[in-house]
Amino acid sequence: MITTCRLLVPAVALFAVVAAVGLARAEGPDFGREVRPILANRCFKCHGPDDGTRAGGLRLDRRDDALAEADSGNRAIVPGHTDDSEFVARINSVDADVVMPPPHTKAELTADEKRILTAWIAAGAPYAEHWAFGKPARPAVPKVADSAGAAAPENPIDFFVRDRLAREGLRPGVEADRATLCRRVHLDLVGLPPTPAELDAFVADTSPDAYEKLVDRLLASPRYGERWARRWLDLARYADTNGYEKDRERRIWPYRDWVIRALNDDMPFDDFTRRQIAGDLLPGDTADDIVATGFHRNTMINEEGGIDPLEFRYLAMVDRVSTTGVTWLGLTTGCAQCHNHKYDPLTQADYYGLFACLDNADEPEWVIPDAEQTKAVAEATTRLEAAWNELPAKWPHVPAAEGQPAPVPLEERFAGWEREEAAKAIDWQVVTPQSWQTSMPHLKVRDDGSILASGDVTKSDRYEIVLPPSDLPVQAIRLEVLPDPSLPAHGPGMAWYEGPKGDFFLSELEITAGGARVAVAAASDSFNGTAAFSGGKSTASLALDGDMSSGWSTNGDQGRPHAAVFTFAEPVAPGTPITVVMKFERHYACPLGCFRLSVTGTGGAEARGLTASEEAALRKPTAERTEEETKALRRRFLAAAPELAEPMKEIRGLEAQLRGGPTTLVLKERPADNPRKTFLRHRGEYTQVRQEIAPAVPAFLPGLPAGTPANRLALAEWLVSGSHPLTARVTVNRQWQAFFGRGIVPTLEDFGFQGTPPSHPDLLDWLAVTFVEDLHWSLKKLHRLIVTSATYRQDSAANAEQLAADPANILLARGPRVRLEAEQIRDGLLRAAGLLSEKMYGPGVRPPQPAGVTETAYGGGAWEPSPGEDRHRRSLYTFQKRTAPFAFVTTFDGPSGDSCLARRDVSNSALQALTLMNDPMFVEVARALGAAALASHGDDAVRLDDLGRRVLSRPFAADERETLLGFLRVQRERLAAGELDAAKLGGDGAGDQIDRAAWMLVARAVMNLDETVVKR
Amino acid sequence: MNGLLHATRRHFFSDCGLGVGKMALAGLLARDALAAEGPRAVTGPLAPKPPHFPAKAKAVIQLFMAGAPSQLELFDHKPKLAEIEGKPIPPEVIGGQRYAFIRPDAAVLGPQFKFARHGQSGAEISEMLPWLAGVVDEIAIVRSCRTDQFNHAPAQIFMNCGFGQPGRPSLGSWVTYGLGSESDELPAFVVMSTGGGISGGSANWSSGFLPSMHTGTRFRNAGDPILNVGQPDGADGRLAADTLGVVGALNRTRLAADGDPEIATRIASYEMAHRLQTSAPELMDLSQETPETLALYGCTPAEASFARACLLARRLVERGVRFVTIYHEGWDGHSDVAGNVRGNCEKTDRASAALVTDLRRRGMLDSTLVVWGGEFGRTPMVEASAVLGRSKGRDHHPNAFSMWLAGGGIRPGVTHGATDELGFHVASDEVHVHDLQATVLHCLGLDHERLTFRHAGRDFRLTDVHGRVVNAILS
Fold first, then answer.
1. What's the pTM value of the predicted model, to 2 decimals?
2. Mean local confidence (pLDDT), A870-886
């Protein structure tokens, strides 16, 4: 049953075919395919679109310019007249001072390149629009080519492919046998090989649409979304850690799960795009739409001590532009970060215009308000109120121990507390600032006099707040630091990376009145935090000591209000404006996020564990207090009473729970009153700020519709408008590559002048137009179209002639034969061994891997393998640590998640061999696989066939069977003789130990076959 | 089976056009021819390639002092700092330089150690480097290094990859891409690590956009040196050979049937894996070294240490490994810089010097380039912080730092470049990181401007559009 159907292609003009793959000869060389790549690569650096570096007044990327007089007065190109063309003379010169490109550029032209350029000028130097930059038109489907000896064509794909084959003098191949096809389409659509039962069912199904039914079943499988999400996550540079030195864990797997669901739901690609780029800006945005914006939150976050957070935000933005370029535009934007693109018509201003489209967003850790969370909040809120109401009943009635005095009754204690507190209560006046300025954060004064900060933060922030003149002789000033749900961990600070979330650090507080410094006699605080990274106390008085490296913080009690009071040595005379300067400085950004200032004319003020309104209420006679005030005071007392410390824990826990909730990283458009400005950076360097740039799309591509505000949503709509020349081409090409191992355009990430032109331009355009207009951006329908083509279904075996004619299978006279991706290999083997867990979604899991993989990661970070079925989940759920990725994935060319990856490398290495042979995870798989084969009813040959069907989707051929049974026999003998340790190799399990060990070894050998790790 | 393979090989050899697999297969044939003649030629994509011009060095050992050692305590003696200790550096000197932890107006901290001149070259180094003082005439000290990055992870990645963000190929990857490998028993690019975890992580030895075979292979301190090189418990050498045999036989059948040259590459990779399983334990077996050699390095074979890593580096290079990096993390002296330098020198000075001595006496120094240094320098100003409980430390300083190089292609006994009297800026003969990278490649016979790789629409190189070879330190 081994099936290697050979194609007997007559060896007609094979060498002509080889030449034709590279160079199709017509009148002159083809401009797009042959000439422009040379010009772009060798000439545009100095004679291209970048006017900053253009030399000699010669521009070669546009015909009019190229034909004009250069600075020298000579004409570089005189169409049809090579002798008059300075260009021809220069490229052929042997004089080092004359020859182009100049020797120092080390970009010498080859003889072949010189010949092509000369022939092009001789033929009239025609230019042509770049194949990727014009809107694709749907090409006519070619007529049926001769299919004699091959499978019948199934859909237009085949006509395009066969038309090209016919022109090259090649014939299409026969269809692969059913088992091979079954395995191929399973691996492609769901990322797993078929089980023996699935295989049998398909092979036995003789109905004419058996294959289509199989395809539809696979497209409907939840495994489909898992397979295709993994490919998308390569582009999204998904990872479960922040990257860089600290590489701390982040929570963004809800985004990963969103991708799986979207693909399983066959969300049209235009919607899929809109939501990921601008879900928060969609009218009627749902929680899911906002989760989807995690796409651009997969950028790295540097939490190393002392970094400049805005510099690394800038670098994350550079990554966002680059990722958008690769993923949707198929353009490399990186060059234009620093200067006008040398090769493509993308200017530096275009680059920062695109940058500005994406720039105007905040980047919160966002609590997902899904149904589960809403329910949890409602429950916690109800419980919290109940817990408060139950609290008085928990007041102790009996002595704590025998012989101890009876406890004072609650009401008596409360009355005492109230009297005492009322006596100390100070008359504070909340003051609303009359003006303010800050180093960076945006401040907004609210009705209650509190001030809320938002926007960007730096490591050294300064708030200068001018208070209106008071009619009091001001004796003290109170700084309340307040929680707010918009702040990290509800504040009161804005620290969001490196330091504790919601922390602030008031290094120094300086007060001036009428221009003179006010001497502060004393400072008190309601809470002094534990300084992060040292554990020392951070009291309010440290904000007065003149040392910027000490200060006040409430770290340890984030999310709750506190206050500091600064009392003056001498009162400030009434009517004098007071200026308060607050400086926040640590090795991470930590300004205050929400605060309020009050003044008092009373002496002896101190910070209390009371809110401002509670302190005000205390100053009223009991009878005049509102119900709310009374309740608040009572609760304040209960909360502070040592007698109730234990039951209060539940209340504090519920409050903390209400401040938290399951989060994910998202984008949120900036409010209109604080837009982020984008500036061009000279040479792309963060510190070299130049002119402000407005959001815009690159000028050489279609513009935005008139009247549309240029923002992220406009950018997303523009990408999927249907008339965009790139998005659909880039997308269908990437899908094509997934099935055939090579794109129609092999440079998936570069459709610009430097990219490789399409092997089948008409097919590319036909697919692009069909995808948008007929399939309405449905990826499932596109995948169905591809896998039901006869081209896809061809046998992949190649004979010598085919290999010689088309070694890389560019022309597709045979089916795809490519090494599987890391995840397909592991998941497939887990499935074959019956170990694969089908549990979907949730936090990343840690399958076993050898100790020491994470030893070089900063701060070590032991890899504690997950228990139970999480050891055997699909690989896309594996916890992705950027600085020490899961070793197996790295070894098999998987990404680290550091940057957008359109195309994985495909390598063969000794480390791969060692991994499949010896990695404990695969030894475990080999044991299970061996045991599964051993359990099948029959003799060793039957067992072996079962093994083959599990792993390779076919039984072994006679010669293979003989080899493997020989191996089995030898190992059995050696195990029996004790040369090999059966107990250690076979592990625990049912049946005979030697059998178990022997079959584990056979399974291990089969797992290491080439065929196991390829799709064929 | 052999006949079949032979037929296939002949077919490929005569008919095939392109492809990695085909090269590997051709290599297999070449190896057959050489089998009787001793050392095997390395084949496939890692086959040795000629340099751009005759090389001085064949291999590199990079001693990466991660965390950034204080040049002011080791190589760059600045008595002026002692004179003005406690005073700030003038703002016009500091310019717009940003710092990680300190304020730019922090006070100056004087050198914490004594310096003296050593050897015939009279190189001035600190008392913390007594062993290096003994080989000072063999090395070239560069006091005028400068980098663009002032945070550890980006700076380490920049030193290795010429770019501050992950994603580009590292120096070792560029070198194996440019020159291939001399060993078909060991990886071409090996990475070892002692001390703490490395800020830049695996991006430091990543192949970036180069083919992934150029990724540095980690040698681990515990367990198998190479991941999974050890067989499962209960197995033996013959089982490895038998398994290789059966896998190879079936793969050859498949090659004959499917005709994909990649199968030949996979067969070759399994053979390489098999050799690794033998060569790795042999490499790690330090009982082959004399007690005198062990003592020279200060190496206790059973203990993972910087000394053992240095000795292993020599053994790797002896066996044809092209590029070895040893990370010693721990130099980040934000507080008590004197204690930090003392502790790290105790761990590294002797073995670093021993490596030079050992390479010299074995005749390997002329063909092995040794590079010592960190990712940036440390500030002339003191780091002290109440909230962090730090005192007498030094912060990160990208503007000026010191490194040393020795061996293949390097002029021994020179001290190159100088900083200003405060050690703040480079005063003469600046050597930027890209210049260092260009120089390392130059010693290996590679022109940094010609060692390029087409990726994402342009030709990338290690030194981007920068880099000048530092001729003054070349022999």
1. 0.91
2. 96
